[in-house]
Design brief:
With 515 residues, the chain is mainly α. It is built from 18 helices and 18 strands. Helix 4 runs antiparallel to helix 5. The longest helix has 25 residues. The two termini are 25 Å apart.
Length: 515
């Protein structure tokens, strides 16, 4: 593959300045509550007031007093409500209250997102925005304590699902900068509560001990109905029905998800569609068309991240033991061993169910057919990133690298489906995971090459457009993606939180590689 010209020091400097300036533009908090409450994905034209919902664990009167004092000019445009006992009783959706500042991705995503926040955090720490990084991490810990999990994002329509679990990584990344063991101890209960969320009956497959994604809500996702329409006014769901009418589906039993006689999507379709959004890969054909069959799969990404979470909790107990009294040490050491055993068991199960020796890839496992789906996907690098793969398995994945490599970095998949999470589109998080996974197993040359390809793409495109965006066409090395995206939303959002963070992390990686 033709090597890309490295960006100049001046070009890198311009991008760094853009990112540094953008953090503040993407920060939300009490001081700009009206801005934070606005939802570009919803039709709010008929709402006299934007609603902010407060956890039932909070003192509503006290929160109202705090917010009215900090927003005297805009407070009459905001309604403060406590969440009902049953979230299904919510008639008008709104923002979920957060006590501190957080960073949003940008564009139509004007709320704090689960897995986005990890990559944003990396950038904040690289940019010496430590106070904001601390606040961002603690907003997600607050979500676990008050809303039951790290949410897809802090809107009421996201209360039924989470996002790829990276909170323990955030806590430890922050610790590397603060060395605050008290902060680790305070975070631990929320981390364990969040871990247990993924072991609930709907998530856990008892036979394998592995987990799946699962949205607890039903019916069409509200943000999709109002926020994913094309130029003709058709919703994402309208376009899906058109696909089903005109195409034969072999990846799953279509009758489960589409009633052809009535030309209607079934309730199970909407369950699968919601669950696909919890995975963060929305949409893709990874689990069959539009990934609605995800509810029947054990995914490589989720279980790799849960392995990482188990290992992170081991690390936390190790740090706590080192900073504890002699009386506390036996308890911390016992907990450390218990979590280490959990991680080792998950590692064995992942390699039993998700490793495909013939393909040399980690693949998602179907619970009904008891077969792995042969759909090469960039999540095969997750076991390298988390260190659960053996050296031999890692080498097999590396042998498949030419399949994934594009002029702009790592392809999301090897199949073009018209979905934004398939080829030829590339996303910053997958670039970093692949680069760091390759480096972990000693493939420094490949890791450096991929990092250069993606960083140079982002910087070249920034030179043309003046913006950093959500995703890129890796073949064309361009942010012009709308023509190739047929399903979901086709826009390319500007900001953009996780791209900013990954670019800074990869620039650091390249600087260290060159030194």
């Amino acid at each position: 593959m033709k090597p890309q010209n490295p960006p100049t020091a001046n070009q890198i400097s311009h991008v760094r300045q853009y990112i540094k300036h953008t953090w503040q533009k993407l920060t939300r908090g009490h001081a700009d509550l009206l801005n934070a409450a606005q939802d570009p994905k919803a039709d709010e034209s008929e709402q006299e007031q934007l609603i902010i919902y407060i956890s039932q664990k909070e003192d509503a009167q006290n929160i109202r007093k705090i917010l009215s004092k900090e927003n005297p000019q805009d407070f009459d445009k905001i309604a403060i409500k406590q969440l009902p006992d049953n979230i299904l009783d919510i008639e008008t959706h709104g923002l979920l209250y957060q006590p501190g500042e957080y960073v949003v991705p940008g564009g139509r995503f004007n709320e704090v997102y689960g897995w986005d926040s990890y990559f944003i955090l990396l950038g904040l720490l690289q940019d010496n925005e430590q106070a904001l990084a601390h606040s961002l991490t603690h907003q997600l810990l607050y979500q676990v304590e008050h809303y039951g999990a790290v949410l897809n994002a802090n809107r009421t329509y996201y209360l039924t699902r989470s996002h790829p679990p990276l909170l323990s990584r955030m806590v430890l990344e922050l610790y590397t900068h603060t060395q605050d063991s008290d902060d680790l101890l305070k975070a631990l209960p929320a981390l364990i509560t969040y871990y247990d969320y993924w072991l609930q009956p709907e998530h856990l497959d008892k036979e394998s001990g592995l987990s799946r994604y699962w949205d607890f809500g039903n019916g069409p996702a509200p943000e999709v109905v109002s926020g994913e329409c094309d130029d003709q006014g058709r919703t994402h769901f309208d376009r899906v029905k058109e696909f089903y009418r005109e195409n034969k589906v072999e990846a799953y039993d279509l009758s489960l998800y589409y009633d052809a006689e009535r030309d209607e999507l079934t309730e199970l379709f909407y369950k699968g569609d919601r669950t696909m959004r919890e995975s963060g890969f929305d949409p893709t054909h990874r689990f069959g068309p539009f990934s609605v069959d995800i509810i029947h799969y054990l995914p490589v990404c989720l279980n790799s991240l849960l392995y990482q979470m188990e290992q992170d909790i081991v690390t936390i107990y190790t740090h706590l033991s080192e900073h504890s009294s002699q009386e506390q040490q036996p308890q911390f050491q016992a907990e450390r061993q218990r979590w280490q055993s959990r991680a080792q068991q998950r590692q064995r199960s992942i390699n039993q169910y998700l490793w495909d020796e013939e393909q040399g890839l980690y693949l998602d496992y179907h619970l009904t057919t008891r077969q792995r789906r042969h759909y090469p996907y960039a999540t095969t690098f997750y076991p390298l990133w988390t260190g659960l793969a053996s050296s031999a398995q890692a080498q097999r994945v590396v042998d498949n690298l030419p399949t994934f490599e594009a002029p702009g970095g790592v392809r999301t998949s090897t199949y073009t489906s018209g979905n934004q999470w398939d080829d030829p589109f590339g996303w910053a998080p997958l670039q970093l995971i692949a680069v760091e996974g390759l480096q972990r197993y000693g493939n420094n040359k490949s890791a450096t090459r991929l990092a250069r390809q993606f960083v140079s793409l982002v910087i070249e495109d920034f030179e043309r457009t003046g913006s950093i965006v959500e995703k890129y066409d890796l073949n064309a090395r361009s942010s012009e993606v709308s023509q190739g995206i047929q399903y979901g939303y086709s826009s390319n959002e500007i900001g953009f939180g996780w791209t900013n963070g990954v670019v800074l992390a990869l620039l650091k990686f390249l600087e260290e590689s060159d030194s």
